[in-house]
């Protein structure tokens, strides 16, 4: 089995989208940025979309901040033959833009001013993941970029964004909300004026739980939003198909730790089940052994030096080396377990950096390691 080499993805003009996914804290954002830097330096017109609220990407690229529109990267020592821009998803702004683009002026005003909309656009389950899909679809539709790199949301399951469009659409177009708004559409009465005794009792019970005003706001929101549902689902379908196309490459990122590799196995299985194009696994922050001295011999030599009262610094270095060998062996066993379960998945090891990555040079070094060099 050949290893993963990101240059193969970058240099293929057919590759239009690279999606970096994995559990939280494994270096997805840094990996996405590193691929972006390398792609730009190899001639691609690239944009990196991050959903990471920590703003590490902006700092590493020499930008004060990232917004909801792409901002070109221009720092000393970075003169790519291509181009690199970066942006960070603003969930509420993306939702607002979607409403403005696909509703009439009057209806958009009604939606944007509705208290229920203000709640779901910032805190409804699945909204962030859906808006990440929406923004990806927008960037692809613009046709400005020949490579889009996506740093997926920092949720427990980084593939939640595959389910988000259907979840959010189902919730907004579900039976409960239709039932709440049905009487209003039927006769324009309003929830409290429904003559049906059965529905009246139901509405009264729900009003007691969530509040009558919230029901009224929800009712008004869905009426204003009605008619956008079809476009809502259609855009989600198109973006989903984009993710399944041959021009998309999924790169799973994991640390050499049990939980991270367990999640990586889940991602691989889910991508295979969804017929998503998986390119490989990045095993990030590994600790390769720098010398061939076995751990046992290093510890024996350290013990001999201690017993002789000689070279305490050398003895300490030998013990550190033994610890490093043990760590490398532990990481190798974990990765081998993953490989045994998924023998067809190419992978590349990226050694841990001596310091945190905080600039383009650091991203460039990681990019070089992503080639397997």
Automatic annotation (TrEMBL):
Gene3D superfamilies: P-loop containing nucleotide triphosphate hydrolases. One of its GO terms (molecular function) is ATP hydrolysis activity. Keywords: Hydrolase. Its EC number is 3.6.3.16. Pfam families: ArsA_ATPase. It comes from the Bacteria. Residues 15-287 form the ArsA/GET3 Anion-transporting ATPase-like domain. InterPro entries: ArsA/GET3_ATPase-like (IPR025723), ATPase_ArsA/GET3 (IPR016300), P-loop_NTPase (IPR027417). The keyword Transcription regulation does not apply. This is Arsenical pump-driving ATPase. It comes from Actinokineospora spheciospongiae.
């Amino acid at each position: 089995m050949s290893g993963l080499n990101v240059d193969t993805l970058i240099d293929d003009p057919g590759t239009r989208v690279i999606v970096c996914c994995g559990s939280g804290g494994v270096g997805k954002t840094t990996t996405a940025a590193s691929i972006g830097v390398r792609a730009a330096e190899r001639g691609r017109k690239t944009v990196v979309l991050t959903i990471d609220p920590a703003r590490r990407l902006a700092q590493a690229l020499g930008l004060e901040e990232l917004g909801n529109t792409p901002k070109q990267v221009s720092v000393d020592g970075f003169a790519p033959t291509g181009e690199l821009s970066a942006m960070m998803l603003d969930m509420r702004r993306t939702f607002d833009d979607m409403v403005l683009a696909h509703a009439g002026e009057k209806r958009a005003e009604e939606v944007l001013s509705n208290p229920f909309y203000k709640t779901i656009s910032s805190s409804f389950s699945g909204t962030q993941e859906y808006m990440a899909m929406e923004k990806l679809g927008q960037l692809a539709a613009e046709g400005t970029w020949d490579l889009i790199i996506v740093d997926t949301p920092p949720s427990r399951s980084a593939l939640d964004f595959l389910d988000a469009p259907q979840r959010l659409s189902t919730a907004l177009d579900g039976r409960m909300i239709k039932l709440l708004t049905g009487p209003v559409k039927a006769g324009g009465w309003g929830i409290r004026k429904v003559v049906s005794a059965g529905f009246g009792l139901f509405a009264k019970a729900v009003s007691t739980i969530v509040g009558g005003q919230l029901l009224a706001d929800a009712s008004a929101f869905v009426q204003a939003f009605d008619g956008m549902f079809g476009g809502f689902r259609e855009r989600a379908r198109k973006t989903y198909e984009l993710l399944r196309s041959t021009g998309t490459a999924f790169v799973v990122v994991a640390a050499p730790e049990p939980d991270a590799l367990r999640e990586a196995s889940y991602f691989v299985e889910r991508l295979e089940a969804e017929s998503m194009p998986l390119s490989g696994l990045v095993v990030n922050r590994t600790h390769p052994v720098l010398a061939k001295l076995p751990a046992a011999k290093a510890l024996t030599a350290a013990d001999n030096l201690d017993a002789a009262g000689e070279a305490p610094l050398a003895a300490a270095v030998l013990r550190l080396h033994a610890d490093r060998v043990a760590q490398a062996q532990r990481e190798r066993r974990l990765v081998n377990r993953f490989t045994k379960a998924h023998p067809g998945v190419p992978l590349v090891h990226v050694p841990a950096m001596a310091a945190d990555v905080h600039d383009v040079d650091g991203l460039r070094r990681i990019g070089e390691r992503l080639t397997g060099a």
